[in-house]
Every structure is written in C-alpha cells, then in structure tokens.
Amino acid sequence: MKQFITHPFPPFYYKDSTVLILGSFPSVKSREQKFFYGHPQNRFWRVTSGVFGCAEPHTLAEKREFLANNHIALWDVIASCEIKGSSDSSITNVTANDLSPILSQSNIRQIFTNGKTAHKFYEKYTQSSVNRNAICLPSTSPANAAWSVDSLIKAWNVIICPR
Question: Which pTM was predicted?
Fold first, then answer.
C-alpha cells in the first residue's frame, strides 16, 4: 500500500562541498535512520569509500566525517511523494526538493544523480530551476545487480574530478 511521505531529514552539506550527489527518495531503512543510504545492501558507502581509497564508514559519525573530508554533499530530488515501501518504481505525486540553499551556500561544481530514477526526476522537476546539468551514475542500489562493486567504483571515479 502506498503512503504519502515527506522527506524526514535534511540535506548534508558544508560550505566547502564541491560535489552534490542526489538520490531519488530515501528507502525505508534510511528513513528509519534519518540519514542517507541506510540499507545495509546499498553499496553507496562501499563504492564512494572505494573511489577515495578510504575505509568504508559504518557509523553515522564516520559517514558524516567521510562526506565532509571528501567535500561531498548529499540530498534527494524528491521532497515528498506517494511510495510503496522503498520502491522507486511506485513513486507518484512528486514534489521536488529546493536545491537553492545547497547551491547558494556551498561550492558545488558538479551535480551527480545516483541512478536513472533520480536522474529522471531531476530532469523533470529540478534541472530547469537550477539551470545545471547532472551526470547520471549507475545506481548503488542492490536492485542494480548487473553492476559489481568494482565496476561501480570505476564509473563513480568521476566524482573525484568534477567537470
């Protein structure tokens, strides 16, 4: 059964963030933890730590420190929607997040989307208002089983040197 849900936690960024990575909407586990990529099967933390050659962060404090040290901002395209569980394919009745606070209060050089669903919603609801293109990266979701962690790390290496 679908529920109407408003995004339950704020974006993560600092004034020196240079890369913004956008997901679509937080999973049930992420909503419970009130932080990004909380599902243990999501490969986001393994992939991004692999890109930067760092130990994988596990605690919330380690994740925040990793993001800050690597100038990564995180947010989601969707502010509220109707969704069934964590299923991106079930998302309807979308309201987009306002990216202007992040873009005006930090040094974002490039925006990336984590997967095709986030990219689709970014192009539909956000791109014209911020007048910036985003680069679509392969999803770190366990549903994207065609991509191994090693192949994801290679694809995600572009976050080191944003164009």
Answer: 0.95
